């Protein structure tokens, strides 16, 4: 299937590794030109080089940190200068520290809200006029299965990412007639460095071995395993494609069936 991504221009946040990189690789393989972002220049350079060696879409990168309030404006200016505009925005951010919501430090809550929520809203607002003017755009926001079924010991993540659900749906309702779709992609337990960190935190908290924690988690997933980054990236590539033009305002799960609700 031709996804109609050849020559499209994409900005993928937090794409030096993990889910963000998986998305960037998947859409670049379809001919999309991607701007990678992250805090590690070394990892970004390595990722961009690997994408460019494969052919199809090309990759550039910009070192950036969403904890800096100037970053959204800088990124919007960068894609304007390098690409002449933007067709696809993938909002992907790192997660906050694990822990119970009742124990959350309000200063941490405020800071993480700025990084995970306000930065996404700010950046989207800066690139949206161009998408609306060309009557074509895709805004895909990566969240977590915790927005549907709150995840134990990830209280702050559950709360902050849920804010983006209301935002994305509202934007879909308001902007859908302009050829721009807003959707959210919800990973379950996809095998990344972040997942290993969370499993390690759970092991420390429970006193169990890392292997036992992982085995217990997999036993609760109907697929019986953790997901692969490539599977997640392929799902994202379809959602930002020309073929997905009638998918708007949706929460798409990529979780192996782990969420228990219908």
TrEMBL record:
<dbReference type="Pfam" id="PF13561">
    <property type="entry name" value="adh_short_C2"/>
</dbReference>
<dbReference type="InterPro" id="IPR050259">
    <property type="entry name" value="SDR"/>
</dbReference>
<dbReference type="InterPro" id="IPR036291">
    <property type="entry name" value="NAD(P)-bd_dom_sf"/>
</dbReference>
<protein>
    <submittedName>
        <fullName>Short-chain dehydrogenase of various substrate specificity</fullName>
        <ecNumber>1.1.1.100</ecNumber>
    </submittedName>
</protein>
<dbReference type="InterPro" id="IPR002347">
    <property type="entry name" value="SDR_fam"/>
</dbReference>
<comment type="similarity">
    <text>Belongs to the short-chain dehydrogenases/reductases (SDR) family.</text>
</comment>
<keyword id="KW-0560">Oxidoreductase</keyword>
<dbReference type="GO" id="GO:0004316">
    <property type="term" value="F:3-oxoacyl-[acyl-carrier-protein] reductase (NADPH) activity"/>
</dbReference>
């Amino acid at each position: 299937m031709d996804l109609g991504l050849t020559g499209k221009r994409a900005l993928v946040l937090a794409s030096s590794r993990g889910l963000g990189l998986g998305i960037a690789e998947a859409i670049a393989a379809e001919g999309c030109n991607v701007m990678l972002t992250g805090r590690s220049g070394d990892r970004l350079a390595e990722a961009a080089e690997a994408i460019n060696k494969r052919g199809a879409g090309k990759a550039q990168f910009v070192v950036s940190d969403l904890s800096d309030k100037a970053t959204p404006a800088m990124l919007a200016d960068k894609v304007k200068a390098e690409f002449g505009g933007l067709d696809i925005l993938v909002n992907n951010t790192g997660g906050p520290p694990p822990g119970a919501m009742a124990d959350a430090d309000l200063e941490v809550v405020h800071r993480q809200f700025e990084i995970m929520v306000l930065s996404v809203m700010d950046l989207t607002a800066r690139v949206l006029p161009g998408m609306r003017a060309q009557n074509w755009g895709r805004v895909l926001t990566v969240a977590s299965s915790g927005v549907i079924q709150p995840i134990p010991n990830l209280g702050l993540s559950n709360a902050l990412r849920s804010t983006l659900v209301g935002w994305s749906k509202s934007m879909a309702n308001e902007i859908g007639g302009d050829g721009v779709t807003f959707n959210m992609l919800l990973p379950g337990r996809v095998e990344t460095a972040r997942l290993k960190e969370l499993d390690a935190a759970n092991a420390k908290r429970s006193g169990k071995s890392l292997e036992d924690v992982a085995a217990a988690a997999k036993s609760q997933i109907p697929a019986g395993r953790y997901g692969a980054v490539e599977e997640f990236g392929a799902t994202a590539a379809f959602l930002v494609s020309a073929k997905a033009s009638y998918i708007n305002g949706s929460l798409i799960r990529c979780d192996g069936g782990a969420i228990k609700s219908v």
